[in-house]
Amino acid sequence: MRGFFGSLNGPQTLGNGRSFWTCFAAALVVALVYPGFSDPYSVGNVAYLLIFTLMALGLSLMWGYTGMFSFGQTAFFGVAGYSYGVLAINLDASGAMTLFCLLGAIAVAALFAALLGYFLIWGRVSGVFFGIVTFATTLALAAFFGQTAGPEWAIGTARFNGFNGMIGMPPLMLPWVGEEDIVLEGNALYYFVLALVLAIYLGLRALVNSRFGNVLVSIREDPLRAELLGYDVRKYQLASFVIGSSLAALSGVLYTAWGQFIPPASMGLPAAAMPIIWVAFSGRQDLTATLAGTFLLLLAFQTITVYSQQYALILMGFVLLVTVLLVPAGFIIGIGRLLAGFAGRDRAGTRQDVPA
Amino acid sequence: MFAEIFSILYQFADVFAFLILAAAGLAIIFGMMGIINMAHGEFITCGIYVTVICVQQGMPLPLAQAIGALSAGLVGIALERTIIRHLYHRPLDSILATWGISLMVTQGMLLLLGSSWRGIGTPLGSFQVGDYTFSTYRLVLFGAAIGVLAGLYLVFMRTGYGIMARATMQNAEMAQALGVRTQHMYAASFGMGAALAGLCGALYAPTMTLIPTMGITFIIESFVTVVVGGANVLLGTAPAGILLAVVRTALNAWYGQIAGQIGLLIAVIVVIRLLPEGVSGWLSRRER
Questions:
Q1: Buried b (16+ CB within 10 A) or exposed e, B182-216
Q2: A99 and A167 in contact (C-beta within 8 Å)?
Q3: Chain B residue with minimum CA distance to A310
C-alpha cells in the first residue's frame, strides 16, 4: 500500500503531502455521495463534464509534460466517436460487446495517432509546426465528415449523415453477474466516468513520477540534452503522444455513447480550441491543476452557454488571452503553488517555469 | 484537346492563386517574427466585410478592395502595438493569444452582424474556350497572386525597408546593433502581413457568401502552404504553392473537392517528414 502511494508522489506533481491527500479524499467522498443529494439531471450533467476532463489530462501529458504542442485532441475525439458508432451499429452491440467497441474505437484512434505521430516526430517537427499540422488535421477531418451526407457515405449499416452527425449507436453497457446488463446512463454512468477519471488521474500521476515521466520532462526542458544523455527522444515523444491522444479518444467514445450522437462539429472550430483553453488556463504542467481547472471552466462555460453561446465563447477567448498575457503558467497551478508554499512541507514547485 | 489542356491549367491557376493569396500574409509574419498568427482568418474576414460594405455604399470594386486591405493592415498594426509585441520571445504563447483573439472576434461578429449577408456577385462575366465557360475574374485572381509574389520580391530585394527586414530576419540583435529599429520592422511587417490577408479577403469577397466564420475557408490552405514553404517567404511560398496546387488540382479532378483537401494535408505531412524545414530550408541548404 505504501509503495503504491509512494509511486503517486514525486517531483513532477504538485500536492504530495498529507494535507493534499486529505483534501483529495474529502473531494472524492463529496463526489461519491453527490448523486444522493442531487437531481438526475445534474448528475448526468456532471458526468458529461467529467467526460471532457480526460482529454484535458491527455493534453497536459503531451503539452505540459512532454512539450508537444498538440492542437489535434479533437481529431482523436472525433475519430474514436465515429469508430465507436461504426463498430457498435454494425455489430448491433449490447452488453459486454459495447465495452469491446469502446476499446476497439480507442485502438483505431491510437493507431491513427501513432501514424500521425510517426510522421511528425520522426520528421523532427516541433514547436509551432507541430501545433499547426495537428490543427490542420482536425479541421480537415471536420470538413471531411461534414460532407458525408449522401447514402454512399456509410460503413456497413452505419451512416455518417454529413453535417448532422452519426446517430443511433447504443449506449455503453456493463455486464453484471447474475443480473441484467447495466445500461450506463444516469447514476450508473456517473459512477463509471468517475471511476475512469480517478483511475486515469492516479495512473498518470504514477506515470509522470516514474522513470518514464522524468524522461518526458527532461525532453520538455531540453530535447537535445536528453538525447545526448542516451535517450531515444522520439520513442518517448511518440509514446506520450499516443497515450495523450488515446485519452482524447476515450473522451470521444464516452461522449458518443452518452448522447448516442457524434457530429463533425466536435472536430472543427471552435471545439478544437476548447481543450487548449482548459489546459492553458488551468496550468498544463500539473495534472491536478488541469483536472480541477478544466472541470471548473467547463462548468462556468456551460452556465453561460445557457444564456448565449457567443458570449460564452467570447469569454473563453478572453480567458485564453488574459492567461497568456498575465499568467503564462496557468491560473490554477499558480494557486496550487501558492498553497504548496504555505504548506511548506510539500516539496513541490521545485521545477523551473520554462514556457513550453 | 486545347480546351481540355486550358481547363486543367485554369484550374491549376485557380488553386495556386488561392494558396498564394491565402498564405502570403501569414508567411510574412511567420518569416519575420516566427509567429503563427491564428487570427489570420479574421484579418481575411475583415478585408471581405470592409470590401462588401464599401461596395454597398456605392464605391467601385477596386477602390473598395484597396480600402479592405488597408483597414486589415491598420487593425494588424494596432494589434501588434497592443498585444503581439509582448510575446515575441514566446512564439508558442503568441499562437495562444492570437487564437484567443480569433475566437473573440469570430463570435463577436456573429453577435453583431448576424449569421449571413448577401454577397456582391462576381464581376467581369465569363469567356468560352471550346465547350467550357470560364470566369474571367478567376484569371484576375491568378494575376493578383503573381502580382503579390512579384511585389514581395521587389519590396524585400529592392527597397531600403527590404534590406533592413531581411537583416532583422537573419539576426535581429545584430541588425539592432547596426541601427535598425527592429521594433518598427516588426510592426511594419505585421501590418503588411495583415494587409495582405485583408487583400486576400478583398479579392475573394465578390466570389462568396458572407458569414462571420468564413475565415476558416482559407485557414487550412494558408497554414499548409506556410508549413511546406518554411521560414523564408521569398524562397519558399511560391514553390510550396506550385507543389500543393499540382497535388490538389490532380486530386480535385480525379476524386473531387474533399479528396483535394485531404490530399493536401497528406502531402504536407509527407513533405514535412522529408523536408522538416520546408522547401525554403531545403533550397537554402542546397545553395551553401
A1: beebbbbbbbbbbbbbbbbbbbbbbeeebbbbbbb
A2: no
A3: B107
- pLDDT tens-digit series, residues B220-237: 888 888 888 877 777 888
CB A256 within 8 A of CB A161: no
ipTM associated with this complex: 0.83
- What's the CATH number where B174 sits? 1.10.3470
Nearest neighbour of A324 by CB, restricted to B96, B268, B273: B96
Residue B128 lies in a domain: no
Domain that holds residue B206: 2-122+133-277
Mutate to test the interface with B, among A115, A147, A281, A310 (most CBs of B within 10 A): A310
In this predicted structure, the answer to whether residue B5 has a pLDDT above a threshold of 90 is no
Contact B107 A310 (CB under 8 A): yes
Q: Using a CB–CB cutoff of 8 Å, tell me whether B103 touches chain A.
A: yes
Q: Which residues of chain A have pLDDT under 50?
A: 345-356
Whole-structure pTM value: 0.88
**Number of inter-chain CB pairs under 8 A, A vs B:** 129
Domain-located, residue B282 = no
C-alpha span between B225 and B227 (Å, rounded): 5
The answer to whether residues A300 and A253 touch, using CB atoms and an 8 Å cutoff, is no
Provide the chain B residues 54-93 that lie in CB contact (below 8 A) with chain A: 83, 86-87, 90-93
Min Cα separation B270/chain A (Å): 7
pLDDT tens digits, B15-64: 888 888 888 889 888 888 888 888 898 999 999 989 988 988 888 888 98
